[in-house]
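job 3f2a | input accepted
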Amino acid sequence: MKKIGVVLSGCGVYDGSEIHEAVFTLLAIDRQGCEAVCMAPQVELSVVNHLTTQETGEKRGVIEESARIARGKIRDIKEVTATELDAIIFPGGFGAAKNLCDFAMKGSAASVNTEVARLLKEMAAAKKPIGAVCIAPALIAAVLGRDYSPTVTIGTDDGTAAEINKTGAVHQSCPVTEFVVDRKNKLVTSPAYMLATRISEVADGIDNCVKEVISLI
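job 3f2a | predicted structure (217 res):
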């Protein structure tokens, strides 16, 4: 059975993984007859009240929060290597741009969690497929932009696209239920909630994205 890494960043759109995107990713992987290997870094996140969208001042562990989505079956990303995965996928949510890296604050000058960057570089060097949705392609650009000049999409947001282009990556506009494939780098990206106005659009886009990632294995 093919093993697909799923990198989570917490639990909740404003301070972690976007839950719909994460669950649709896991569902799509299972429907393709593959096994999801959930993982997250052992770092802290700043909690956001999802009713008010304001920070509460509380801190929680990213891996512990991510375990809510993974139903407890999750690994510390530092223990995962590219040799045990066939592909890897990054759901979106602000956690991808705040907890896995700081693109939300620094744009093209973003730094990326050491272990996240290490595993992503391993996957790219091994020419294993990489998927990312919503804002997560910005993280891919921050890590691989200079060395691989990957083509990615976050949809149609000009400001975010401009920051992605500064990393050495190339942004390509894309409708919500479709995806962009960089075949040279075995990279598939899709907009999800960067564009979606309906949950069904997110489901369709991620399902298409995951199928394409798996087809590249």
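job 3f2a | The longest strand covers residues 55-61.
job 3f2a | closed
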